[in-house]
Amino acid sequence: QVQLVESGGGSVQAGGSLRLSCVASGYTSSAYCMGWFRQDPGKEREGVAAIDSDGSTRYAGSVKGRFTISKDNAKNTLYLQMNSLKPEDTAMYYCAAARGINCSPGYLAYGRDYWGKGTLVTISS
Questions:
Q1: Phi, psi (degrees; rounded to nearest 5) at 102
Q2: Model confidence at 25, in pLDDT bands (50, 70, 90)?
Q3: String of b and e for 71-104 (b: at least 16 CB within 10 Å)?
Q4: Lowest mean pLDDT: which of 26-30, 70-74, 108-112?
Q5: Weakest-pLDDT range from 11-15, 24-28, 39-43, 57-61
Q6: Least packed by Cβ within 10 Å: which of 17, 70, 86, 105?
């Protein structure tokens, strides 16, 4: 059982930056695939970024080059640094963890085992 709590969302103008944090508690393990997915009303859930147990990362094409995922195992905390934000980045952002082998943004979006309640990110033009 893993609990995930996101924070760091807010309202920012296009071009700005935000850093999201996710604190994991319960039965945490570095073996989990972890990452972020997002969803806004009327749109499909989209995997954003994933980081595997070996530290390798994957990103959705829509955020590659702008977002950076990282984690601090000692603090049981996952981060998502978001730069050059665009209005289309507006969504609820969810932290997720999965035990599966396929550690990818898409897997976290649709095959996740645990996720938080989300933190809202709103980007204005």
A1: -80, 95
A2: very high
A3: beeeebbbbbebeebeeebbbbbbbbbbeeeebb
A4: 26-30
A5: 24-28
A6: 17
**What does the alpha-carbon distance between residue 43 and residue 18 come to, in Å, rounded to a whole number?**
22
- For β-strands 2-7 and 18-26, DSSP reports them as antiparallel
- Residue 104: what residue type? S
Residue 66 CB coordination number (10 Å): 15
The 3-state DSSP class for residue 60 equals coil
Residue whose token pair is 């938080």 = 116
